[in-house]
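Hallway conversation turned thread

IA: we were arguing at lunch whether anyone had actually written out DNA processing protein DprA end to end. Turns out nobody had. So, for the record, here is the sequence (375 residues) and right after it the structure tokens. Reply here if something looks off.
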Amino acid sequence: MQPSSDAEKICILALMHTPGIGAVTIRQLISHCGSAFQVFQADYKKLIKIPGIGDKIVKSVLSKNTLELAERELAECRKTGTQLLSFNDPDYPVRLRALYDAPVALYTKGTTDFNWPRTVGIVGTRKISEYGKLITENIIRDLVPYQPLVVSGLAYGVDITAHRHCLRNNLATLGVMASGLDVIYPAPHQRTAFEMQDNGGIVTENALGTKPDFMRFPARNRIIAGLSDVIIVVESGRTGGSLITVEFAQNYHREVFAVPGAINEAQSEGCNFLIRDHKASIFTSVEDMAETLGWLKGAPQIGSGVMTNDPVITFEGFTQEEAQVLSLLKQRGSMQLDELAWQSGMHLNRLASLLLNLEFQGMVRSMPGKKYGLI
């Protein structure tokens, strides 16, 4: 029997709240059992056989102590107008689903289509200069003909400047938070966060009520990088969250641009060094960046899910599931069976059958350690 949508979401939330279980473990459990609901239907003998799942974790799952908490949390999401997207939800961002460290679930408010055809992440220092403000304003203005979704972190400085100019230019914008959606940080940005929900929205991987602890900001930055086709660093010092975002972007094979600045300005040190070390292309104009990305002026069809790395359009002549697997292998080079199951959201048995068929077609080869790669 297939579980209801609510039952599956409750079970995913319950796994997220189960002590000693992180995203990788949840991935293992769901990949082997087929769904979060089936994880809680499994017995000790089945769960203990899953690689990497020990006695302590199995007993934590079987206690089912977090199911009631998860039910209350889902009810609170409904009460506050918060949408919960689990990684196997069809509306979950395709750009994130293909990543090895994708959030198990996202909490979101607003009107955002997470599979917007074009996305631009704009990040930078909290101590923005007048030069940085002017450049950010100009970037947003010049992005309007291309109609991307602009992603940032709702922080002071470059982030909030980008969000607010998007609102003024009627450009969709998404704020990625390091807290729960009901804990807007910093507090002075509450009004902007509310206004963004009419043309974009706010999103987090953190449960309602979560405070913006320091350790949550790097995790937030990986989501900004993962949701973006390209990252623009407007201003940055030699250290900080912007450079962490760049590291994630490079790991995810995203394009990175940095705005050059005066060599004696602390706010431009990070950007200048990114350019010097060939970790970012020099940003000269939106038009030049768009040419690099192959963008044409004019809004692409919103809701089409079309983007440069969309698995549905990358491999013609294959089914959607086959194209998804081939795209993942193309992006990562090679992947273990469990990792493929997690990223694709497929049951292991279905995935194994699909991989065998792709082997027969001469597209995929099996490798030691239950790994697969493209031929």
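OS: looked through it. Confidence is low (pLDDT under 50) at residues 302-314.
IA: good, adding that to the notes. Residues 5-79 form a domain with the DNA polymerase; domain 1 fold (CATH 1.10.150.20).
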